[in-house]
Amino acid sequence: MTKNLSILGSTGSIGRNTLAVAGRFPERFRVRALAAKGNISLLARQIERFRPDAAAVFDEENARALEKTIPGGVGTKILWGPDGYAEAAAFPKTDMTLSAFSGAAGLSPTLAAIEAGKDIALANKETLVMAGEIVLKAARESRAAILPVDSEHSAIFQCLEGQRRKDLEKIILTASGGPFWNRPDVDFSRIRPEDALAHPTWSMGKKISVDSATLMNKALEAVEAMRLFHLSHDQIEILIHPQSIVHSMAAYIDGSVMAQMGVPDMKTAIAYALSYPKRLPLRQPLPDFALLKSLEFEKPDPKRFPSLDFAKEACEKGGSLPAVMNAANESAVAAFLEGRALFSDIFAIIETVMARHLPIPDPSLSDILEADAWARETADHFIAHAGQNPKKKKIDAS
User: Residue 10 annotated as binding?
Assistant: First the structure.
């Protein structure tokens, strides 16, 4: 039976890998809708290759450019803006929506897909970080399944299969550590964007690569794991694992620890979400354990990487604070990549914005979106007042 797919974020790393999997198994998958922001040339090639019924872009200008770029006779309906994204996400012929937009932009279209009863292959962790209770409630009401695509959450999902949940003691999320975890000599104020983007084991987009370098990616994953697997923060341990072979583990009350392992390639987790409960014959190479010799694990240093403490605070206080943490991080990372803030400023910006926010308990979706907007505005204010040359003036988190 063919599964019909809508892919949000088709031109990003996860989207491209998803299309690679779908393209290898045309008898199993049919691409019905694509959505991207502004990489028109790549999106046009994807449309020509997969002939979706619809494709959505960020705005009307990009839509017009796409219409001029795609070959005549393709027949793909071109959509744009929030309404276009929602239509592509909840496209009537779709069985499953792959949510791989970067950041908070993924929340609204993912909710639209869930409310339409589409199963979700979730790569956009921010959806659950920002509005986990709202999203999960909507999924229960529409009977939409949420299947994790992040390698860590896919690993936990697989390690929990067939086990009694009451026997689970904790989960262990592994982190590659990014390029700086074992370099105490590195001055964070001197790190350039190209340094932070040089991930040692994974090939990812710019934002998530910076998040990996600050360990904020793991902070967001901890919040997502709490909500996805109904855990307390105390049931989550994070360890640096530079080889990126053990994608995560589940520890049980009898002392057993189950690990899911594989080479660092997102196609494995993507394929499992798309084909669950079956597995696709990807023919991925297995880890060469004899060549590896050893698998290393180390506790992260919270003094150098305070992101994990931010996540703990966000989980403990709850309400709208996780959304604020996420928004402040997105603004800080954007400023760093654009040369408006230092790498070390990312932590200061997040800490400052979180400290200024009074969490809203049991927030509605509008409360969350307002908190998100407030956090971005507040972060941008601090960034702007750090001076025209951020290298000459660090942002004060006090």
Answer: no
Domain boundaries, the chain: 3-149, 153-292, 318-387
Phi then psi dihedrals of residue 29, to 5 deg: -130, 140
Q: Tell me if 13 is assigned to a ligand binding site.
A: yes
pLDDT digits (tens, 9 = 90+) for 145-179: 999 999 999 999 999 999 999 999 999 999 988 88
232 annotated ligand-binding residue: no
Tell me if 102 is assigned to a ligand binding site: no
Q: What CATH number is given for 3-149 in this structure?
A: 3.40.50.720
**230 among the known binding-site residues?**
no
Q: What is the pLDDT of residue 369?
A: 96
Q: What is the chain's length? A: 398
Q: Is 377 a known ligand-binding residue?
A: no
Q: What is the pTM of this model?
A: 0.91
